Amino acid sequence: MSASRARASAERLAALTELARAVATEAGQLVMEGYRSRPAADEKGRRDLVTEFDRGSEALILQRLRAAEPDIRVVAEEGSRHRQGTESPLIWYVDPLDGTTNFVHGHPFWCVSIGLCEVLTPNQPAGPPSELPVAGAVVAPVLNLTWLGHTGGVASCNGTPCQLSETASFGHALVATGFPPLRDQVPDNNFDSFMQVKRRCQGVRRCGSAAIDLCMVADGTYEAFWERRLHVWDTVAGAAIVLAAGGQVTSLTGGAPDYHVGHVAASNGLVHEQLLHAVGA
Predict the structure, then answer these.
(1) How many CB atoms lie within 10 A of CB 12?
(2) pLDDT tens digits along 9-61
(3) Edge-to-edge strand order for the sheet containing 156-157?
(4) Are residues 120 and 205 in the same domain?
(5) CA-CA distance, 187 to 201, in Å (whole number)?
(6) Residue range(s) defining the domain that contains residue 46
(7) What is the helix, strand, coil percentage profile of the chain, to 5?
(8) Same domain, yes or no, for 103 and 57?
(9) In the chain, what's the furthest Cα-to-Cα distance?
(10) Does residue 145 sit in the same domain as residue 262?
(11) Percent above pLDDT 70 for the chain
C-alpha cells in the first residue's frame, strides 16, 4: 500500500539530526575508551557479541534523547525502550555500537548510529502503516568520519555535502555487503548472492558495519550495498543518509523496504537494477 509523505518539516528534522549527531558523538567518545583494549564480550546469540561499551553507549544515548525529546519513542539494540506519552509519529532507532565484533578485535570499522523514522498513515484505511527513514547520524570515531542527512536537506560527511558515485556500469562498481550471525540457511546466509554479485562487479567489500556501508554509498565510496536479515537499528540512519544524498533504497525484490525484515538494497540509483538482478540470480 502506498503511504503519505513525511509530515515533519525540514527545519524540525534538521534540529533532530543535529541532536542525533551530538548524542552519537558523545557516545562514540565513551566507546573509544575501550577501543583496542580487548574488552570482555558476551554472546547474546551465536556469533553476536555485546560488551559493556555497547550497554554504556546505549544508556547514555537513551538518557540524552529522552531528556531532549521526551515525546519521541526510542528503540535500541540492546533492549532499551522508551515510549512516549503522546501520539508522536516519530521513532528513534539506536545502534549504540554497530560493528561490535570489529570493536572487540580492534578493527576500526565500527560506529554509533542514531536514525529517525516517521510512521506514515496509509492512504487506504485497511493498509498497514509503514516507516520512512527521515533523519540519521552515523559517527565512526576511529575513522574520524561523521555522516548526517535528513529529508528535505542534504547528506554530508564531515560537513562536506555527499556526492553519489556517477558510475553506471555494474562491472565497474564497488559493492558492499555482509553476512548474518546465523549462516546455516539459504538464501538468508547471503552466500549465493555474494558469489553472483562478485562475478559481475568490480569488487565486493565486507567491512562489518551496515551503517557505515550505507553511508559509503551516500558519499560515493561504494556504488551499492545489499544485505539480508539486518535489524532496523542497523539500517535506519544509513538509509536516511542515502535518501538525503539522492540515492535509492529498496527491498531485494525492488519494492519498498521493510526495515523490520531487513532485506535491503541501496545504491546510487544508476546500478540498482543491475544489483537486484545479480542478487536474485
Answers:
(1) 15
(2) 999 999 999 999 999 999 999 999 999 999 998 886 565 688 999 999 999 99
(3) 81-82, 73-76, 90-98, 111-120, 130-140, 145-150, 156-157, 160-161
(4) no
(5) 20
(6) 10-161
(7) 30, 25, 40
(8) yes
(9) 53
(10) no
(11) 88
198 grid coordinates? 562478485
Strands 111-120 and 130-140: antiparallel
Q: What pTM was estimated for this model as a whole?
A: 0.92
CB 112 within 8 A of CB 147: no
Phi/psi of residue 31, nearest 5 degrees:
-65, -35
Residue 278: burial class (beta carbons within 10 Å; 0-12, 13-18, 19+): buried
For residue 51, give the C-alpha cell.
560488551
Residue 268 C-beta-side C-alpha neighbours within 13 Å: 22
* Whether 20 and 154 share a structural domain: yes
Q: Do 179 and 108 belong to one domain?
A: no
Residues 126 and 228 in one domain: no
Domain-located, residue 2: no
Write the single-letter amino acid at 280: G
Residues 85 and 154 in one domain: yes
Give the domain CATH number at 157.
Answer: 3.30.540.10
Decide if pLDDT at 126 tops 70: no
Per-residue pLDDT for 170 more than 70? yes
252 Cβ contact partners less than 8 Å away, ≥ 6 residues apart: 226, 228, 263, 264, 265, 276, 279, 280
* Secondary structure element (H or E) that encloses residue 160, with its range: strand 160-161
Angle of the 232-245 helix axis to the 210-218 helix axis, nearest 10: 0
Q: Write the CATH number for 214.
A: 3.40.190.80
Domains in the chain: how many in total?
Answer: 2
State whether 53 and 22 are in the same domain.
yes
